Structures are given as structure tokens and as C-alpha cells.
Amino acid sequence: MIDLHTHTTCSDGTDSPRELINKALSQGIDVLAITDHDTTAGWSEARKAVRGDIELVLGAEISCLTHDGISVHMLGLLFDENNAPMQKLLEETRDGRIPRMKKMIELMRAEGMNISMEDVEAAMPPGATLGRPHLADALVKNGVIASRDEAFQGLLNNDSRFYVSHAAPTPEEAISIIRSAGGVAIIAHAFASHRGQILGAQDFQGLCDAGLNAIEVNHRDHSDSEREMLRAIAIEQNLVITGSSDYHGNGKLNSLGENSTDLEQWLRLESQANARRVVKA
Asked: Measured between alpha carbons, how far is 149 from 253 in angstroms, rounded to an integer?
């Protein structure tokens, strides 16, 4: 089983990198990618935790914005962690999250909601990348909402009046930097319409021209018809087709390995990196 999209406590997951690898081992995952939001902070711990037959793929999920303000998430896998432009991109994207969070809190407090920046910071594991899930956890703790899922269906949805975008690269810029760092680029949950405004089929040509390697087709936020549309785009553009859980631990309903990538597709994707960087025991 191959799962190419998961999160740890280094961003908005609830399992540490070590705990996630242990869980993957117990559930028979053969290839696991750790893709925390805008950070490589969990890579060192994850490397040390590898044992048995599992293969570890290190990466990051980069928050992007199109020129029209559409939120796009780009998975970068197998890139050189010492590549300076890549680390600069991740750092700048992380920095943009702080003023964005303060503005969202300000909008909520203006409508009488019991929430503060201190509440959100208390909900973050040490060293984690700040994100909306931490705001959701703080809102749950303060009794404003019942769960993270409820938050993302309403208050924190991309179309919500409380949603605030942040400084971020365009998807094309992110792809270019991932590829220049020797990695491969996968667009994540591209047709997850319940999250807000999404790309159209016509937008993929520009991503392909920038060097896109793959499309995450099989994801719980895609309907059967959306999966078929994405599969058709991938075949037309000769892109790799992936499937992933987008696992966050207890933070979301997504189960580890609930969607997976075919071995043939994974081997094709892995071969497109400029060096062999899969971590093995």
C-alpha cells in the first residue's frame, strides 16, 4: 500500500513523525510520504524512525494562490532539503500565515466569538506550522463549534466570510521551485469543491507547462465524477495518477491508507526526481 500525502504534529496532524511511521508499519503501508504544510521540520525524526520494510518519502505540502485568488495545494516530494530557494519558499509561506491568522481571529471576535491568538497558539504542538486546523481546535476547546470537520464545513471554509488568504506562491512558481530542487510536484485534491473555489480543467495546461508531474486523483474529497475528470486530464497530459489519504491523525476523519497509489504509478513518479531519495532502513 502506498500513501503519498500525510501530516504530523509538525503542521496540523496529531501524530508525531515517529508515531505516524509506527502506525503505518502496523497497518501494512509499504511506502509512506510525510508532507507537512510548508515545512520539512519533521524529516529528521521521520528518518530516525524508519525500520522494517517501509519506504519513507519526504516532502511538503505547499500552500499556493492563483492570480485569481484560488487556493491550490502542491505536494513536493523527493526534493533536496538543502536547496536554498526551496527552503526560502517554505519559510516565506509559513511567515505569511501569522498575519492571516490574526485577521481571521479579528473578524470572528467582531462577531462575538470567544477566540484569541493565545488560544490558537495553545492549540499548536511545539514547532508546528500555524494553520486553520489549530484555529478550529481552539474554537472547539472554547465551545464555539463541535469539531474540526464542522469548522471546515462552515466558519473556516474558503468561501466563508472569515476566510483570509495569505501571501503564497502561485502553483506554477511552486512547481518550478520543487522541480529545480530535484523533486516532483503533485497537485493535491484539485477538485475538492466543498473547500471553496477550485481550478477548472482548462487551468491544468499552465501547470503542465510549469513541470507538473502528477495529479492526486483518488482523495476522499473527490466524488466519483471528479475522479474521472481528473483521471482523464492526467491521461491526456501524460501525468502520473496518485491516490492518498491526506491523513491528519485524530484531526480529521481521513484514515491512513484509505486511498493509495498503484505501484506502477509510484515507480514512474519516483523515477522523475533527479536523485533517489527514498529513505529505507
From this structure: 8
CB distance 7 to 37 below 8 Å = yes
Strand-pairing partners, residue 216, are 242
Q: Sorting pLDDT into bands at 50, 70 and 90, what band is 196? A: low
**CATH architecture under which domain 2-95+167-270 falls:** Alpha-Beta Barrel (3.20)
| Nearest 10 degrees: Cα torsion 134, 48, 18, 131 | 10
Confidence of residue 126 (pLDDT cuts 50, 70, 90): confident
Write out the residue limits of the CATH 1.10.150.650 domain(s) in the chain.
97-153
pTM value > 0.85? yes
Which is nearest to 69 in space by CA: 193, 196, 222? 196
Please give the CATH number for the structural domain made up of 97-153. Answer: 1.10.150.650
Of 188, 97, 161, the C-alpha closest to 134 is 97
What is residue 101's three-state secondary structure? helix
Beta-sheet pairing, 184-188 with 71-77: antiparallel
